[in-house]
Amino acid sequence: MRILVIGSGGREHALAWSIKHNHPEVELYVAPGNAGTASIGTNLSIDPLDFEGIAKAVEELGIEGIVVGPEAPLVAGLRNFIKERFGDKIWFVGPDKEGSQLEGSKVWAKRFMKEMGIPTAEFYVADEGNLNEVVERVAHEWDPPYVLKADGLAAGKGVIIVDNKNELFDIATDMVLNRRFGEASASIVIERFLPGMEASVFLWVDGDSYVLLPTAKDYKKAYDGDKGPNTGGMGSVSPGWLTGYHIAKVKSRIIEPTIDGLLQKNIHYTGFLYIGLMFVNDDPYVLEYNVRLGDPETQAIMPRLEVDWLGMWRDGTFPMREKPDYAVTVILASEGYPEKYEKGFVITGLEDVGREKDIFVFHAGTKLNEKGEVVTNGGRVLAVTALGPRLSIARDRAYEAVEKINFENKFYRTDIGVDLMEKVNA
User: Are 71 and 9 in contact (CB under 8 A)?
Assistant: First the structure.
């Protein structure tokens, strides 16, 4: 069995690792991959948006299945392209272009939720034609803070929380008229802020069937105490804090109406679905949909799973076992991320950490230099994950491992999981 994983980040390394861990017989290829995926498979120098290059690799290498990590190729219609080219000869993990609108367009997703009665924050849609009118209405009707979201894909950074009315117009104008996030913010969603506790729910969906994967909580802000700008994610914990009581509400109020709504629109969704939630007084509201697994939540979830991926993806069965351990993932980033940062620094300590039991290092922004050394190649560089029977133990082990890995300008949050300690009786 030859499988091609699309992507180059920590999520893709974790997915590739899990495939190989659960199916040692599989021959793995990763496009384009990173220094971590190179140790468990063969990296291919193919851009995830180079559909013809992917098709050529499928033909030349005899690929039987494709697993897509990032959202961009899904939103651009990679599944549609592969199915048109190869039919049912290739099984494919990820939704088609129509289903990918859940993430590809915040406007489409919010209108979908409103139409289907799925709880979400109140919102308005603004563009060049109505920007002033919408901003005035929002400022009049709601007290700050306000949440501004670019309609299109912005690499996880297209969300800005505005703390006062004076900044609302300036930031909305910067997003829409100045294209702060490129064409992704030609239209924006302005949401009423929801105070509460966040959680992440992950599913595998196949039409009208679904299976819940382990829950998680991620940490988007750059600095301790949830301060600073939004990032792609600075750490995660799995399982999250949700109880069976909360999960039951999520199923009945959000998951089932979402799947039913997609079917009503003649969208047969096949792939992972991530639902970002805010719980307000124990009631769930959808913050966002992602049409793939989260990053860095995947790096916390995968070491906790024993799963027959081929059964799930190819045969329509759902054999899966979730370990009782907690997982804590800490992102090692380049100082300056998510803004400007330097690359090319040699990373040391990886071999020592890699030999430790229940410690996992998933690569994100890394590559091999001319000397064969692993060097930094992005804002988020590594995800260090540790398992433990209690959250406090997993936290201690993760941070002990973090201290053993070094590179110039290393930066990370020191408080991942602290807010959950009392909640989960750590």
Answer: no
Number of domains in the chain: 3
Give the structural domain span for 241. Answer: 197-420
Rounded to the nearest 10 degrees, the angle between the axes of helix 51-61 and helix 78-86 is: 40
How much helix, strand and coil, in percent to the nearest 5, is found in the chain? 35, 30, 35
CATH number of the domain encompassing residue 213: 3.30.470.20
Residue 101 lies in a domain: no
- Determine, yes or no, domain membership for 265: yes
Cα(380)–Cα(10) distance, rounded to whole angstroms? 9
Bin 182: left if φ > 0, else alpha if -120 < ψ < 50, else beta. Answer: left
Which residue pairs, CB below 8 angstroms and at least 24 apart, start in 155-164? 155/232, 156/230, 156/231, 156/232, 156/233, 156/295, 157/181, 157/229, 157/230, 157/231, 157/232, 157/338, 158/184, 158/185, 159/230, 160/230, 161/193, 161/230
Confidence band, pLDDT 50/70/90 cuts, at residue 426: low
* 150, burial (CB in 10 Å: exposed 0-12, middle 13-18, buried 19+): buried
Tell me phi and psi for residue 307, to 5 degrees.
-150, 145
Nearest C-alpha neighbor of 302 from the set 13, 5, 18, 86: 18
Comparing C-alpha atoms, which of 62, 29, 21, 20 is closest to residue 48?
29
Provide the residue type at 385 as one letter. T
List the one residue out of 134, 151, 153 whose CA is nearest residue 142.
134
pLDDT in tens, 338-373: 999 999 999 999 988 978 899 999 999 999 999 999
CA distances from residue 77 to 32, 89, 103, 263, 290 in whole angstroms, order as listed: 18, 18, 13, 19, 15
> Are 288 and 109 spatial neighbours (Cβ–Cβ below 8 Å)?
yes
For 365, which DSSP code? S
Q: Are 426 and 391 in contact, with CB atoms under 8 Å apart?
A: yes
pLDDT in tens, 80-135: 999 999 999 999 999 999 999 999 999 999 999 999 999 999 999 999 999 999 99
Same-domain pairing of 179 and 205: no
Q: Which residues contact 351 (CB under 8 A, 6 or more apart)?
A: none
